[in-house]
Write a structure and sequence with these properties.
286 residues; alpha+beta; Butyryl-CoA Dehydrogenase, subunit A, domain 3; four-stranded antiparallel sheet; 10 strands; 20% strand
Protein backbone atom coordinates (compact mmCIF):
# COMPACT_ATOMS: atom_id res chain seq x y z
CA UNK A 1 0.00 0.00 0.00
CA UNK A 2 1.28 3.47 -0.89
CA UNK A 3 2.04 5.69 2.14
CA UNK A 4 -0.61 8.21 1.07
CA UNK A 5 -3.27 5.48 0.93
CA UNK A 6 -2.30 4.17 4.36
CA UNK A 7 -2.23 7.63 5.91
CA UNK A 8 -5.70 8.33 4.51
CA UNK A 9 -7.02 5.92 7.16
CA UNK A 10 -6.12 8.53 9.76
CA UNK A 11 -8.80 10.84 8.41
CA UNK A 12 -11.32 8.09 9.16
CA UNK A 13 -9.79 7.67 12.62
CA UNK A 14 -10.17 11.40 13.27
CA UNK A 15 -13.76 11.31 12.04
CA UNK A 16 -14.57 8.71 14.71
CA UNK A 17 -12.27 10.03 17.47
CA UNK A 18 -10.59 6.62 17.49
CA UNK A 19 -9.11 6.00 20.97
CA UNK A 20 -6.23 3.86 19.70
CA UNK A 21 -2.57 4.51 18.72
CA UNK A 22 -3.10 4.05 14.99
CA UNK A 23 -1.00 7.05 13.95
CA UNK A 24 1.76 6.14 16.40
CA UNK A 25 1.88 2.54 15.14
CA UNK A 26 2.14 3.82 11.57
CA UNK A 27 5.02 6.12 12.48
CA UNK A 28 6.78 3.39 14.44
CA UNK A 29 6.54 0.80 11.67
CA UNK A 30 7.70 3.42 9.15
CA UNK A 31 10.85 3.95 11.21
CA UNK A 32 11.41 0.22 11.70
CA UNK A 33 10.98 -0.54 8.00
CA UNK A 34 13.42 2.20 7.00
CA UNK A 35 15.99 0.83 9.46
CA UNK A 36 15.45 -2.81 8.44
CA UNK A 37 14.21 -3.93 11.86
CA UNK A 38 11.54 -6.63 12.04
CA UNK A 39 8.17 -5.38 13.21
CA UNK A 40 6.73 -6.89 16.41
CA UNK A 41 3.10 -7.77 17.00
CA UNK A 42 0.79 -5.33 18.67
CA UNK A 43 0.39 -1.54 18.83
CA UNK A 44 3.49 0.63 18.98
CA UNK A 45 4.39 4.16 19.86
CA UNK A 46 7.32 6.37 18.97
CA UNK A 47 9.53 9.09 20.43
CA UNK A 48 12.56 11.15 19.48
CA UNK A 49 12.87 12.98 22.79
CA UNK A 50 16.14 14.94 23.03
CA UNK A 51 16.79 13.65 26.55
CA UNK A 52 17.31 10.06 25.41
CA UNK A 53 20.84 8.68 25.15
CA UNK A 54 21.54 5.61 23.04
CA UNK A 55 25.05 4.27 23.62
CA UNK A 56 27.08 1.21 22.71
CA UNK A 57 29.63 -0.80 24.65
CA UNK A 58 31.06 -3.36 22.25
CA UNK A 59 28.12 -5.35 20.91
CA UNK A 60 25.80 -4.24 23.69
CA UNK A 61 23.46 -1.27 23.35
CA UNK A 62 21.93 0.74 26.18
CA UNK A 63 19.13 3.30 26.22
CA UNK A 64 18.72 5.79 29.06
CA UNK A 65 16.82 8.99 29.70
CA UNK A 66 13.33 10.44 29.94
CA UNK A 67 10.78 10.99 27.18
CA UNK A 68 7.76 13.16 27.93
CA UNK A 69 4.45 13.32 26.11
CA UNK A 70 4.73 9.87 24.53
CA UNK A 71 1.36 9.13 22.94
CA UNK A 72 -0.22 5.94 24.30
CA UNK A 73 3.09 5.08 25.98
CA UNK A 74 1.42 2.93 28.60
CA UNK A 75 -0.73 1.01 26.11
CA UNK A 76 1.83 0.10 23.45
CA UNK A 77 3.52 -3.29 23.19
CA UNK A 78 6.75 -1.51 22.33
CA UNK A 79 8.38 1.87 21.87
CA UNK A 80 10.38 2.83 18.79
CA UNK A 81 13.04 5.38 19.72
CA UNK A 82 14.90 7.61 17.27
CA UNK A 83 18.16 8.88 18.76
CA UNK A 84 21.56 9.99 17.54
CA UNK A 85 24.72 7.97 18.02
CA UNK A 86 27.92 9.86 17.12
CA UNK A 87 25.84 12.36 15.19
CA UNK A 88 23.99 9.77 13.10
CA UNK A 89 20.32 8.81 13.64
CA UNK A 90 19.61 5.31 14.93
CA UNK A 91 16.37 3.47 15.59
CA UNK A 92 15.92 1.35 18.72
CA UNK A 93 13.03 -0.99 19.45
CA UNK A 94 12.24 -1.31 23.15
CA UNK A 95 9.63 -3.66 24.57
CA UNK A 96 10.40 -3.35 28.29
CA UNK A 97 12.72 -1.96 30.92
CA UNK A 98 11.09 1.45 31.27
CA UNK A 99 8.78 3.04 33.81
CA UNK A 100 5.57 4.86 32.93
CA UNK A 101 4.06 7.98 34.49
CA UNK A 102 0.46 8.54 33.45
CA UNK A 103 -0.42 11.86 31.83
CA UNK A 104 -3.15 12.92 29.40
CA UNK A 105 -3.74 15.74 26.96
CA UNK A 106 -6.77 18.03 26.98
CA UNK A 107 -8.77 15.37 25.12
CA UNK A 108 -7.91 12.77 27.80
CA UNK A 109 -5.70 10.82 25.40
CA UNK A 110 -2.65 9.20 27.07
CA UNK A 111 0.53 11.26 26.72
CA UNK A 112 2.85 9.46 29.12
CA UNK A 113 6.29 10.11 30.52
CA UNK A 114 8.63 7.15 29.98
CA UNK A 115 11.90 6.71 31.86
CA UNK A 116 14.35 4.35 30.14
CA UNK A 117 17.28 2.41 31.57
CA UNK A 118 17.32 -0.69 29.44
CA UNK A 119 18.86 -2.79 26.69
CA UNK A 120 16.89 -2.35 23.44
CA UNK A 121 15.56 -5.37 21.59
CA UNK A 122 17.14 -4.16 18.33
CA UNK A 123 19.13 -1.16 17.10
CA UNK A 124 20.01 -0.09 13.56
CA UNK A 125 21.14 3.06 11.71
CA UNK A 126 18.29 5.09 10.25
CA UNK A 127 18.04 7.10 7.03
CA UNK A 128 15.37 9.20 8.76
CA UNK A 129 16.14 12.08 11.11
CA UNK A 130 14.27 13.46 14.12
CA UNK A 131 13.03 16.27 11.88
CA UNK A 132 11.69 13.71 9.39
CA UNK A 133 9.80 12.03 12.22
CA UNK A 134 8.43 15.34 13.49
CA UNK A 135 7.24 16.22 9.99
CA UNK A 136 5.63 12.81 9.45
CA UNK A 137 3.95 13.15 12.84
CA UNK A 138 2.65 16.57 11.82
CA UNK A 139 1.23 14.98 8.68
CA UNK A 140 -0.68 12.43 10.77
CA UNK A 141 -2.19 15.19 12.90
CA UNK A 142 -3.21 17.20 9.82
CA UNK A 143 -5.15 14.19 8.54
CA UNK A 144 -6.75 13.50 11.89
CA UNK A 145 -7.79 17.15 12.19
CA UNK A 146 -9.40 16.96 8.75
CA UNK A 147 -11.43 13.89 9.77
CA UNK A 148 -12.58 15.45 13.04
CA UNK A 149 -13.64 18.63 11.25
CA UNK A 150 -15.66 16.56 8.80
CA UNK A 151 -17.51 15.02 11.72
CA UNK A 152 -18.24 18.25 13.61
CA UNK A 153 -19.38 19.95 10.40
CA UNK A 154 -21.93 17.18 9.85
CA UNK A 155 -22.98 17.26 13.52
CA UNK A 156 -23.32 21.02 13.59
CA UNK A 157 -25.27 21.21 10.33
CA UNK A 158 -27.72 18.59 11.56
CA UNK A 159 -28.09 20.38 14.90
CA UNK A 160 -28.88 23.63 13.10
CA UNK A 161 -31.65 21.84 11.20
CA UNK A 162 -33.08 20.19 14.32
CA UNK A 163 -32.86 23.03 16.85
CA UNK A 164 -35.74 25.47 16.63
CA UNK A 165 -35.95 29.00 17.96
CA UNK A 166 -38.74 31.53 17.41
CA UNK A 167 -40.70 28.90 15.54
CA UNK A 168 -38.12 27.85 12.94
CA UNK A 169 -34.82 25.92 12.73
CA UNK A 170 -31.83 28.06 13.70
CA UNK A 171 -30.19 26.98 10.43
CA UNK A 172 -32.60 29.30 8.63
CA UNK A 173 -31.18 32.38 10.35
CA UNK A 174 -28.67 34.24 8.22
CA UNK A 175 -26.05 34.59 10.96
CA UNK A 176 -26.08 30.84 11.60
CA UNK A 177 -25.92 30.11 7.87
CA UNK A 178 -22.87 32.34 7.62
CA UNK A 179 -21.17 30.46 10.46
CA UNK A 180 -22.02 27.10 8.88
CA UNK A 181 -20.58 28.27 5.56
CA UNK A 182 -17.36 29.36 7.29
CA UNK A 183 -17.16 26.03 9.12
CA UNK A 184 -17.60 24.14 5.85
CA UNK A 185 -14.90 26.29 4.21
CA UNK A 186 -12.45 25.58 7.03
CA UNK A 187 -13.20 21.87 6.76
CA UNK A 188 -12.59 21.93 3.02
CA UNK A 189 -9.25 23.67 3.60
CA UNK A 190 -8.27 21.08 6.22
CA UNK A 191 -9.20 18.22 3.90
CA UNK A 192 -7.01 19.69 1.16
CA UNK A 193 -4.20 20.18 3.68
CA UNK A 194 -4.54 16.58 4.81
CA UNK A 195 -4.26 15.33 1.24
CA UNK A 196 -1.10 17.42 0.75
CA UNK A 197 0.36 16.06 4.00
CA UNK A 198 -0.35 12.45 3.02
CA UNK A 199 1.34 12.89 -0.36
CA UNK A 200 4.35 14.52 1.32
CA UNK A 201 5.32 11.33 3.16
CA UNK A 202 6.65 8.71 0.78
CA UNK A 203 10.12 7.88 -0.45
CA UNK A 204 11.23 11.06 1.27
CA UNK A 205 9.65 13.71 3.47
CA UNK A 206 8.63 16.99 1.86
CA UNK A 207 9.12 19.39 4.77
CA UNK A 208 7.81 22.42 2.91
CA UNK A 209 4.53 20.76 1.95
CA UNK A 210 4.02 19.41 5.46
CA UNK A 211 4.77 22.82 6.99
CA UNK A 212 2.04 24.40 4.87
CA UNK A 213 -0.39 21.53 5.48
CA UNK A 214 0.00 21.33 9.27
CA UNK A 215 -0.19 25.08 9.67
CA UNK A 216 -3.38 25.37 7.62
CA UNK A 217 -5.02 22.36 9.27
CA UNK A 218 -4.17 23.72 12.73
CA UNK A 219 -5.70 27.08 11.85
CA UNK A 220 -8.86 25.35 10.62
CA UNK A 221 -9.01 23.32 13.84
CA UNK A 222 -9.15 26.42 16.02
CA UNK A 223 -11.71 28.23 13.89
CA UNK A 224 -13.84 25.13 13.34
CA UNK A 225 -14.00 24.16 17.01
CA UNK A 226 -15.06 27.68 18.00
CA UNK A 227 -17.80 27.84 15.36
CA UNK A 228 -19.17 24.42 16.26
CA UNK A 229 -19.52 25.38 19.91
CA UNK A 230 -20.98 28.76 19.01
CA UNK A 231 -23.75 27.16 16.95
CA UNK A 232 -24.45 24.39 19.45
CA UNK A 233 -24.64 26.86 22.31
CA UNK A 234 -24.67 25.65 25.91
CA UNK A 235 -25.54 22.03 25.08
CA UNK A 236 -22.25 21.64 23.21
CA UNK A 237 -20.26 22.39 26.37
CA UNK A 238 -21.87 19.63 28.44
CA UNK A 239 -19.90 16.47 29.12
CA UNK A 240 -22.81 14.32 27.97
CA UNK A 241 -22.79 15.79 24.45
CA UNK A 242 -20.38 14.14 22.01
CA UNK A 243 -19.12 17.40 20.48
CA UNK A 244 -16.29 17.79 22.99
CA UNK A 245 -14.78 14.43 21.99
CA UNK A 246 -13.87 16.08 18.69
CA UNK A 247 -13.24 19.71 19.59
CA UNK A 248 -10.88 18.83 22.43
CA UNK A 249 -8.95 16.58 20.07
CA UNK A 250 -8.77 19.41 17.55
CA UNK A 251 -7.18 21.67 20.15
CA UNK A 252 -4.74 18.94 21.23
CA UNK A 253 -3.76 17.80 17.74
CA UNK A 254 -3.19 21.33 16.43
CA UNK A 255 -0.25 21.65 18.88
CA UNK A 256 1.21 18.14 18.63
CA UNK A 257 4.27 17.76 16.40
CA UNK A 258 4.45 21.53 16.17
CA UNK A 259 1.77 24.19 16.04
CA UNK A 260 1.21 26.99 13.57
CA UNK A 261 4.08 29.24 14.80
CA UNK A 262 6.71 26.52 14.37
CA UNK A 263 5.69 25.42 10.88
CA UNK A 264 4.94 28.96 9.69
CA UNK A 265 8.42 30.02 10.79
CA UNK A 266 10.00 27.09 8.95
CA UNK A 267 7.97 27.91 5.84
CA UNK A 268 8.82 31.61 6.07
CA UNK A 269 12.54 31.01 6.53
CA UNK A 270 12.62 28.74 3.49
CA UNK A 271 10.79 31.24 1.30
CA UNK A 272 12.94 34.14 2.50
CA UNK A 273 16.12 32.21 1.78
CA UNK A 274 14.89 31.17 -1.67
CA UNK A 275 14.37 34.78 -2.73
CA UNK A 276 11.56 36.72 -4.38
CA UNK A 277 11.87 35.02 -7.76
CA UNK A 278 11.26 31.60 -6.18
CA UNK A 279 8.17 32.62 -4.19
CA UNK A 280 5.44 31.88 -6.73
CA UNK A 281 7.00 28.69 -8.18
CA UNK A 282 7.48 27.35 -4.63
CA UNK A 283 3.92 28.12 -3.54
CA UNK A 284 2.33 26.61 -6.64
CA UNK A 285 4.47 23.46 -6.33
CA UNK A 286 3.11 22.57 -2.87
Amino acid sequence: MAPADALALLRVAGRHALPLPLAETMLATWLLAAAGIAMPEGPLTVTAAPGLVLSRDGAKWHLAGTAMGVAWGGDAAGVVVLAEVDGAPHVALVSGGYTIAEHRNIAREPRNTLVFDTVPDAVAPSPLSALDLRAAGAATRALMIAGALERITAMTTQYALDRTQFGRPIGRFQAVQHSLATLAAQTAAALAAGDIAAEAVGEGVDLLAIAAAKSRAAEAAGIGAALAHQIHGAIGFTYEHSLHYFTKRLHAWREEYGGEPEWNERLGRHLAAAGADALWPTLTAI
